[in-house]
Amino acid sequence: MNFVEELKWRGMIAEIMPGTEEQLNKELTSAYVGIDPTADSLHIGHLVSVMMLKHFQNAGHRPIALVGGATGMIGDPSMKSAERNLLDEDTLRHNQDCIKKQLAKFLDFDSDAPNAAKLVNNYDWMRDYSFLNFIRDIGKHITVNYMMAKDSVKKRLSRDSSVGMSFTEFSYQLLQGYDFQYLYEHEGCRLQMGGSDQWGNITTGTELIRRKLNGEAYALTCPLITKADGGKFGKTESGNIWLDPEKTSPYKFYQFWLNTSDADAEKYLKIFTMLSKEEIEALAKEQAEDPGRRPMQKKLAEEITIMVHSKEALEAAIEASQILFGKGSVETLHKMDEETFLSVFEGVPTFDIERSKIEAGVAVADLLTADAAVFPSKGDLRRNIAGLQINKEKIDAPEKVVNADALLNNKYILVQKGKKNFYLLIVK
Length: 428
What we know:
Layout: H1 3-9, E1 15-16, H2 20-26, E2 30-35, H3 47-58, E3 62-67, H4 89-103, E4 118-121, H5 123-126, H6 131-137, H7 144-148, H8 151-159, H9 167-170, H10 172-187, E5 189-195, H11 199-213, E6 218-222, E7 235-236, E8 239-240, H12 250-258, H13 262-272, H14 277-289, H15 295-308, H16 311-323, H17 330-335, H18 338-344, E9 350-353, H19 355-360, E10 362-363, H20 364-371, H21 378-383, E11 388-390, E12 393-394, E13 401-402, E14 412-417, E15 421-427
Parallel strand pairs: 2-3, 2-5, 3-4, 5-6, 9-15
Antiparallel strand pairs: 1-6, 7-8, 10-13, 11-12, 11-14, 14-15
């Protein structure tokens, strides 16, 4: 597989330094991507770079994931308006371990192959490097004029002229440049990859290697992912979409991709899945013929949910999704964990019910009128009972008794009135 050609048709190259493709065609090459370790999970904003590493390894090359334990403590002027907080070493190591477990779903770290992936942390080579040694060994090779010319610096200075830029942030590109030099010397790393906003920082590294070591190093960036409607990719009202199932449930993760717009679906299939060009073209044709079936979104959600979580998590997410569309069963509800259950029914009207009432047993007619105003009256309930379900089971008599056996996760009762009206009774 030709790595550059693969990325080109997938729309994953923004800029590439001359000579990069020739280097990759010549020999097995090591390349790295930097990852910010300020959280103990990756989010989907990291996935483009991770997919680049995955394609890189598939092409027979050696991927290196660099956890920025040192640079992550500073903040990159091209990314944030505020500086980041200092992480203690225990937190840093914990975050690193969690990130490696997630990366292992995409990259092969454990094989004996010459292109097995490696995880490194720049804190390991920065923590004992004195400031005096750093400015003597590294600082003298890169001029202030060169650093000031970088877009990330110019944008930050023009954007925040009243606040300015700290020396800490200004020095970020030197630290990132030194990372590249260190990996060039110790891991034979010849290429750094990242988002297009990192071009300036990456080329500082290639320049440092050229000036200090008289070596050749290369740069490749991918476009920053945008949505067709101009909205920010990967952000929802509740925040980031995380890869950790404790932070974002597999159901919510699956739903995020399933709700991709038609305008973005083909682009995301190219970037976030390993599907071939022919498979994606076939899905695009299928979508054009019958957009209502949304085959591209379904395939996108399936592929990426399996890759990040598992086939079992995908099946559970699909099963949970079907409950809202008239399918699913009481068994499905009972085996669903609380987080997924609440994710599915987020935003539906809720009513608080006293536990003692449910434990004693209460007639449906009383429960859904006096205790929870699902129906305005018992007469209205009787007239509309044909469309009434409790926990996906049809109710045929208003006097039917509901007791503690009906509780889902020992706390909830799901009421459905008609096809689309759901209510959640929360037993306290």
